[in-house]
Design goal:
- The chain is mainly β and 131 residues long.
- It has a single domain (20-121), classed as Lipocalin, CATH 2.40.128.
- The chain is built from one helix and ten strands.
């Protein structure tokens, strides 16, 4: 009986239920970045680049996420066949607090940070595209 009570006590103090929330669909904007969250991931626009997340964005109990995606650098002018844009594997890591998101984009291969951004839900992005 004592063993049963100890086990029950141990289970009752664990951080259950562990809740995870999907990041709601909608637009987030900031300086040099736009994120359109969809039920299946997201599409990003940057100054002279774009990216994609092809998995649902799920927040942990601290309202953080870390998810794989792609990042494609752009350049002005015509694109030559010999210099087609390359998908770069990245990690999009963020934390949401209210209507504000801090997002870091990091290359998977070199671990180099491409950028850190602050986005606001429903805010228009300020982006300068390469044309």
């Amino acid at each position: 009986m004592k063993l049963f009570l100890n086990a029950l006590l141990a289970v009752s103090i664990l951080p259950f239920p562990m809740t995870f929330d999907d990041l709601p669909a909608g637009n987030w904007g900031g300086q040099h970045i736009s994120l359109e969250v969809t039920p299946t991931g997201g599409k990003l626009e940057f100054d002279c680049a774009h990216g994609e997340i092809s998995s649902k964005i799920v927040l942990d109990k601290q309202r953080r996420f870390s998810i794989s995606g792609t990042y494609v650098e752009e350049h002005g002018g015509p694109t030559r066949e010999s210099s087609l844009p390359q998908n770069i594997a990245v990690v999009y890591a963020g934390q949401v607090s209210g209507d504000t998101m801090k997002l870091t984009v990091k290359r998977k291969d070199t671990k180099k940070v491409i950028g850190t951004f602050t986005l606001k839900r429903g805010e228009e992005a300020f982006i300068v595209k390469c044309r």
